[in-house]
Every structure is written in C-alpha cells, then in structure tokens.
Amino acid sequence: MLQQTWTSRCLMKFYAVVATSPASWESHKIAERIEQRILNSNPVMEAFGNACTLRNNNSSRFGKFIQLQLNRAQQMTGAAVQTYLLEKTRVACQASSERNFHIFYQICKGASEDERLQWHLPEGAAFSWLPNPERSLEEDCFEVTREAMLHLGIDTPTQNNIFKVRRKATPLKFGRDDGQPFA
C-alpha cells in the first residue's frame, strides 16, 4: 500500500473514532462504509493515474484531495474525492525506460480473448504509446482494478465501454479512386 494511502487510511480511522460517539453504532458503521469506499477507489486511481518512472515503479502522476463531510454533530456522513492529473503529457510521451499509465498495460495483459476482440485489441499488437510492454510489474493486475470498479458501482458494460480502444477516424479522400484529380 502506498504511504499516501496508508496515511489517508490512518487519518480517516482516527477521525471516524473521534467523530462518532460511543453510543452511536450506526454512525460508526457509516464512517466505516465511507472509509471502505474511499479505499476501494485507490486501485482504480492508481491504475489510471500511476506509471512506472525512472525512480519508482508505481509513481503517482495525480493529486488527490479527500474532503470528509460531517453533520452538525460532527459525525462523518460522506466524503468527496477530487483527483487531478499532474502529467497529461505521459499519455503521448515517456522517457525511454519509463512506461505509460498502468491501466494501458493492465488491459493489454489482462484482457481475455473475447474482451480483446470486443475492445479492438488484436493479440500481440504493438502500440507506439505503450513503451516497454515486456516489463512486468506488480501493478499490472487488471482483475484488482476491475473488481475495485465494481465495488465503486462501475458495472461491467460501463467498464467495457471505458476499455474499448477507439478507432482512429479514416481521413476523407478527395479525388478519384485511381488517384487522378477530378476533371
């Protein structure tokens, strides 16, 4: 578990204990449920926002702001997680020994044969935006990401739509089929 994730978890647990009265079992359960949903978001956020860099195999390329929501009695009633991508250029360009975001490798390595067909990913295809695909990392676990997405309410059809590779539009050609200009 990342140090940031561990720190967030400790702070949420501390606040959940402090903010819930000993007599309120219901508020304690709500706080635990909120904490679990935030923690379930981590594999998804790491897959879509972390990459292998020169210094770290699981380097976070995004920022995360967690806002715990409280009622008037200072009991935790909800949370909002805001993320922002710090390094959008990584999608198109990486250093020679780095990799793109983990999710791209997870899809290529973890998709079944049927999924590959559905998502337009031919077996053994090479993509210019996926350098160093032969390198395997612990973070390449696609099933963990998919399971976390299900826990967050992202159903399988929606996941399939997310993972589908969009085909590049074919440019319109002007002129005749034989290459000659119109007369």
TrEMBL record:
UniProt GO cellular component terms: cytosol; mitochondrion; myosin complex
Domain spans labelled Myosin motor: 1-183
Pfam families: Myosin_head (PF00063)
InterPro entries attached to this UniProt entry: Kinesin_motor_dom_sf, Myosin_head_motor_dom-like, P-loop_NTPase
UniProt xrefs under SMART domains: MYSc
Gene3D superfamilies (UniProt xref): Kinesin motor domain
SUPFAM superfamilies to which the protein is assigned, alphabetical: P-loop containing nucleoside triphosphate hydrolases
GO function terms (MF aspect): actin binding; ATP binding; cytoskeletal motor activity
Keywords: Actin-binding, ATP-binding, Motor protein, Myosin, Nucleotide-binding
Stretches assigned to coiled coil: none
Entry superkingdom: Eukaryota
Family: Belongs to the TRAFAC class myosin-kinesin ATPase superfamily. Myosin family.
Protein name: Myosin XIX
